[in-house]
């Protein structure tokens, strides 16, 4: 017997008719054609099916589909912006953290959840976060390196934002003290403001992705794309950059 299930996936609302006993993974893959989440063991052992439910990693192969109703599901298809890999995906590509790639979507989602709650995780914290994701190919070292690389880039953007914010406050303060109209010494730390700050070297472009996060393009000598969480002012979620030499993988 089928039932209509309403799911919000990567920011889009779907209503799908599925057999009542189906799992979230079955609904994603066979009901909606979202095949990024992999069906590995199909019994909760390998982590290949990991998706986020309200930003918490869950094993979609053992999650009844109706448990996802009313929540926000994020799958690997929701990580990248239009035409751009997410910083994690970029770091995985650069470090060789994906070989056959079967485990990669699940690992990306576990790592993404980690960086949402801890933008600067220790190596041990990364290991803990990925403990439920098995990989038969890489030996894990490159995967850990990739998550660290993404976290370093996130940190770099945060520092950039802070210094940009300080500059803005300074110029706002200067303007205020000189009597200029419309300048605010305390600019709220919204994604839009940070996008402008990051784009100060050139023309900026912004677009929201499926999850309501705002991407910002910054043109200039060191082009950098920030992926900022528009729903959480003051918090940058992740960054895609042109891989400044400082953060390139050494091995
Ligand atoms: S497919 Fe879900 S844990 Fe293996
Ligand atoms: S890259 Fe092949 S299983 Fe992980």
Detailed description of the structure:
The protein is an alpha+beta fold and 251 residues long. Helices cover 33% and strands 19% of the residues. Among the domains are: 1-78, Beta-grasp domain (Ubiquitin-like (UB roll), Roll), CATH 3.10.20.30; 79-175, [2Fe-2S]-binding domain (DNA polymerase, domain 1, Orthogonal Bundle), CATH 1.10.150.120. The chain contains six helices and nine strands, in the order ββαβββαααααββββ. Helix 2 packs across helix 5. The longest helix is centred in the middle third of the chain and has 37 residues, at 141-177. The radius of gyration is 20 Å and the shape is globular. Bound molecules: FE2/S2 (inorganic) cluster (2 copies). Residues 98-104, 135-138 line the site of one FE2/S2 (inorganic) cluster.
CATH H-level superfamily title of the domain at 79-175: [2Fe-2S]-binding domain
Give the fraction of residues assigned to helices.
25-40%
Radius of gyration: 20 Å
Could you tell me the number of beta strands? 9
Alpha-beta content class: alpha+beta
Q: Provide the CATH top-level class of the domain at 79-175.
A: Mainly Alpha
Low-confidence stretches: 175-251
**How do the SSEs run, as a string of H and E?**
EEHEEEHHHHHEEEE
The pLDDT mean sits at: 75
Strand content: 15-25%
Number of helices in the DSSP assignment? 6
Bound molecules: FE2/S2 (inorganic) cluster
Q: Kindly report the CATH topology of the domain at 79-175.
A: DNA polymerase, domain 1
What's the CATH architecture name of the domain at 79-175?
Orthogonal Bundle
How would you sum up the major sheet?
Answer: 5 strands, mixed
Strands of the largest sheet, in order across it? 2-1-5-3-4
């Amino acid at each position: 017997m089928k039932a209509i299930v309403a799911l919000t996936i990567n920011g889009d609302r779907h209503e799908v008719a599925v057999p009542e006993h189906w799992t979230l993974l079955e609904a994603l893959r066979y009901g909606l054609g979202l095949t990024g989440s992999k069906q590995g063991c199909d019994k909760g052992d390998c982590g290949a099916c990991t998706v986020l439910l309200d930003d918490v990693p869950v094993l979609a192969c053992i999650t009844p589909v109706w448990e996802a109703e009313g929540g926000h599901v994020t799958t690997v298809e929701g990580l990248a912006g239009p035409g751009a890999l997410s910083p994690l995906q970029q770091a995985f590509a650069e470090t060789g953290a994906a070989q056959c790639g079967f485990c990669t979507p699940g690992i990306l989602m576990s790592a993404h959840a980690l960086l949402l709650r801890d933008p600067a995780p220790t190596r041990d914290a990364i290991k803990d976060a990925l403990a439920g994701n098995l990989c038969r190919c890489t030996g894990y070292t490159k995967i850990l390196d990739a998550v660290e690389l993404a976290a370093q880039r996130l940190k770099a953007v945060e520092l950039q934002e802070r210094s940009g914010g300080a500059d803005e406050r300074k110029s706002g303060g200067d303007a205020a003290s000189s009597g200029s109209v419309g300048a605010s010494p305390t600019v709220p730390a919204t994604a839009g403001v940070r996008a402008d700050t990051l784009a100060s070297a050139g023309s900026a472009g912004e677009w929201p992705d499926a999850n309501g996060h705002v991407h910002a393009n910054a043109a200039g000598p060191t082009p950098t794309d920030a992926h900022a969480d528009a729903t959480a002012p003051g918090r940058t979620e992740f960054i895609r950059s042109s891989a400044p030499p400082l953060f390139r993988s050494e091995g």
